[in-house]
Amino acid sequence: MSEIREVIINTDRLRTDEYLVNMGPQHPSTHGVLRMLVRLEGEKVLNIQPHVGYIHSGIEKMCEALTYPQIIHLTDRMDYLSAHMNNEAVALCVENALQVEVPDRVKYIRTIMDELSRLASHQLWWCVLGMDMGALTTFFYGLRDREMILDIFEETCGARLTVNYNTPGGLMFDIHPNFQKRVKDFIKYFRTKLPEYDQLLSGNVIFRERTGGIGHLSLSDAIDYGVTGPSGRASGFSCDVRKHQPYSAYPLVKFNEIIDLRCDTLARYEVRIKEMYESLSILEQLIDNIPEGEYAVKMRGVLKLPEGEFYQRVETARGEFGVFIISDGKKNPYRLKFRSPGFSNLFALNSMVKGHKIADLVAIMSTLDLVIPDIDR
Amino acid sequence: MTNEELKSYLAGRFSDAEIVLGNQYVEMTVKDDMLHETAVLLKEIEEASFDYLFCLTGVDYTENMAIIYHLESTRYRHVMVLKVRTKDRVNPVIDTLSDVWITAKYHEREVYDLLGVQFNNHTDLRRLFLEDGWGFPLRKDYVDEIRIVER
Amino acid sequence: MAFNFYDFTNFTHNIHVGLNESFSPFAATTIEWLIVGTSYLLFVALFGLLLVYAERKVCAAFQQRLGPMRVGPWGLLQTIADFIKLLMKELIMPRKADKFLYNIAPFIVIIASFLAISVIPFAPGLQSLDFDIGVFYLTAVSSVGVIGILLAGWSSNNKYSLIGAMRSGAQILSYELSVSLSLLTMVVFAGSMQFSTIVEGQRDAWFIFSGHIPAIIAFIVFVVAGTAETNRGPFDLAEAESELTAGFHTEYSGIKFAFFFLAEYINLFIISGVATTVFLGGWMPLHFGNFESFNHVMDFIPPVVWFFMKVFGVIFIIMWFKWTFPRLRVDQILTLEWKYLLPINLANILLMALVVLTKFHF
After folding, report:
1. Separation of alpha carbons C111 and A352, rounded Å
2. ipTM of the predicted structure?
3. Minimum-distance CB partner of C328 among A19, A141, A206
4. Taking Cα atoms as reference points, which of A372, A370, A361, A317 lies closest to residue A133?
5. Is C1 part of any domain?
6. B36: containing domain
7. Confidence class of residue C1 from pLDDT cuts 50, 70 and 90?
8. Contact partners of C by the rule of 3+ C-beta pairs under 8 A?
């Protein structure tokens, strides 16, 4: 019903040389169930309207009936490519509310797993970007390398993607004895492979022509729309939560926040590639120095947060992820709100894509790196 | 500015708002008719310059509804929380802030969709996730025999 | 009838004489046509199957995987299985489609390919049509395929097919120019449009070596324009899956889709075949002027084998492009042709004319 009303609203100014095309919920390049109504004049895009909600599962309402460890399990499924970082956000929020200090070992392991997740997410982004642009080989190169990270996750956490490794107070169990060696082997292997990515895609003249100067998002627009993460940093918006509000072991490592001032698609691409290098360097700083200790603090069976409001921000692969808990002293939160990076990033798409062609729309959407369950929750 | 300084600055500037230092951030509660004006001032004053709205939450309290805005300044890196309560719960109405921060346009659509809060002067107030005939799921009195299982 | 693998002239001559003795001239000619037609059909069918299989294996090698391995030894029967599947599919016709045009579109595309393949010389004596305006004929008939594509897009009654067909049509028409001009460059060098003369003229050295710089430029332009002609490689926007449209053949299924699919691979063979004939010496072995012993060794390999080796080399290079590069956008495709390839081509023809006049070549 609402769809019909919408088309009428859109068509009262529709001339006969424009047409409305649906990039429907099932489409190879929308990275999930996103529907976009695209108003075209020939090849030129005049306006797009994203329609979300195809995978809305009412996670926020569900959380009002769950206890805090159960909520952590549910956050895996939102932005499934940065599952560990979502888990960590809720765990940190609860720990800060209860004023529990976790051991250093936990902080190190959490940060190492964060950076591995970030690498895996950026690898998947890269391989899908190549595929969307037509370089089908990149899909296999990226996935081949990502398998190594997923194998490490499977050995330590039991699951490849939805890891569910955090719990309020620490981790579910200790790391596997092979963990450090495998991560070190992976770092060595990936450092030789990452230049291959540059050779295949970054330096290619066709790729640079298709992404240079496309999809301009100015700094003031990025701040106004709340576009964070690599997409925001490519517009000059310094928004890395790991630098501004550090958590876990991030105060202890040295890394650069990658900012690019060019504001176009190519800048977003290069920021993510450079972030992969930075992640590798963070891993190198941490992997040998994991302190000994407990892997969790003993917490009560049933966790009840004190009355009040608590907010925790973490930096996922897509941007700033926030958990806002309003608690009234019971074991379930009164209201839980997830600030998802994809939600803010998606609605900046319309301003970026006006005047470009359909092929550019696909390229711009790929570099925004959207995961739709993150938007819909 | 640190939280203390921010609190005293805001208390000086906005005398009829309630300013409290919460667990993490300075929280300012304003009346609903002063909301838009306060928001514009918060964005434009030099010493405040809260240009980054990073979270907009709608909450259903039993007497009325609250909208909570988390604001940050990209220049000074201080954070504050702006809260407002609607007059009633049956038909909650609030001014829109989408002309101050564009991202609010879409977050307000979500609040309208899930809680039923109307926003004045919103250019495109439609449902975001759910269909037209659906109720407002995030309300505490939402009943759905099929999809919600009461234990 | 002696079957000389090195020179088929005697073989074909003997068949011709034998037929004329047994039948009337009219019947003999008809039977000859039937033989040639059937052998071309068989060849096209077999080669189509082989090229599809080769593409999948080459693609897999670039992507560090194995490709089809299960159907038959090393997956050799995979394409046959694919074609049987296509034959068994239901032929769905869209309700408001223009029936006549919808049905003849695939045939036009295949006919264009057949017409073009008939002039390529496979070996000495194994060439079915040898006009003295061979190159001109080739460029003329390869343009007929565009009509089939445009008809397919128009008659499908689907706005996505129409967009795809328009893009494809614009692209093919533009790149026709580059293909023709680069062939024309070599005609200037060879002095004749007849294919057998062009191949004979490469007895001492292939044109790409003896024509040095202008021939190399023409070769590169020809290969680039040729992949664009066949809607392959980085120029496959018209049939890209991850774009808005699925191309002009969206509404085709079963055997009609198989025709388009086959026609694409046959066109690939044609482009490679023409590149081989005009630039790389056709069926001529690699000779280097005066090195008699070297030439003698090279002559051991039959010309047919030389021809297919060269064709497969060019096909491999074209497949390499497809699996490495991302796609160009449609306005970039047209810009490439009209602003870059065409001026380069024209300058190159001039250069080649100068080279020929001053005899500054090998």
Report:
1. 46
2. 0.90
3. A206
4. A361
5. no
6. 3-90
7. very low
8. A
